């Protein structure tokens, strides 16, 4: 599934990186705890979160996550948008709550990537 398709399914909008929206994603992770995100491993993952702060972008950079979608209508600050553009991370948002957003993507065929093997 492409990021563009995922954002359309979520009836979302792009804040940054729409020019990279044809990027493929193979799995999704929904979390508000960045420690949980760090336990998640798959490549080409889409991160759904309700946490809107710079730590989300730093975690995405560290874990090589290329797509962040904020849920519940949350909106990033301009500083966060600038950070994601510099890191070439796609930033989008949806009004859907996390549970519904995850369900819509799952129903469309996007699966969980599992957890990191220790």
Structure characterization notes:
The chain has 118 residues and is an alpha/beta fold. It has a single domain, classed as HprK N-terminal domain-like (Udp-n-acetylmuramoylalanyl-d-glutamate--2,6- Diaminopimelate Ligase, Chain: A, domain 1). 35% of the residues lie in helices and 19% in strands. The N and C termini lie far apart (28 Å).
What's the CATH H-level homologous superfamily?
A: HprK N-terminal domain-like
What is the overall silhouette? globular
Compute the separation of the termini in Å.
28 Å
The CATH architecture term is 3-Layer(aba) Sandwich
Mean pLDDT: 91
Structural class: alpha/beta
- Reported by name, the CATH topology is Udp-n-acetylmuramoylalanyl-d-glutamate--2,6- Diaminopimelate Ligase, Chain: A, domain 1
The total count of strands amounts to 6
As a percent range, the share of helical residues equals 25-40%
CATH class: Alpha Beta
Secondary-structure element order, as H and E?
A: HEEHEHEHEHE
Sheet having the most strands: 6 strands, mixed
Number of helices: 5
Task: Provide the low-confidence segments as ranges.
Answer: none
Number of domains: 1
What portion of the residues fall into strands of 2 or more residues?
15-25%
Radius of gyration: 12 Å
Biggest sheet: strands side by side, in what order? 1-5-4-3-2-6
List keywords for this structure.
6 strands; alpha/beta; 35% helix; 5 helices; 118 residues; single chain; Udp-n-acetylmuramoylalanyl-d-glutamate--2,6- Diaminopimelate Ligase, Chain: A, domain 1
């Amino acid at each position: 599934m492409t990021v563009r398709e995922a954002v359309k399914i979520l009836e979302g909008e792009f804040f940054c990186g729409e020019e990279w929206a044809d990027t493929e994603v193979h799995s999704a992770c929904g979390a508000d705890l960045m420690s949980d995100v760090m336990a998640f491993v798959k490549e080409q993952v889409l991160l759904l979160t309700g946490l809107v702060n710079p730590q989300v972008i730093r975690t995405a950079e560290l874990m090589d996550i290329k797509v962040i979608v904020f849920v519940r209508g949350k909106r990033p600050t301009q500083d966060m948008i600038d950070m994601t553009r510099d890191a070439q991370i796609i930033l989008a948002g949806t009004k859907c709550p996390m549970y519904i957003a995850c369900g819509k993507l799952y129903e469309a065929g996007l699966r969980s990537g599992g957890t990191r093997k220790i």
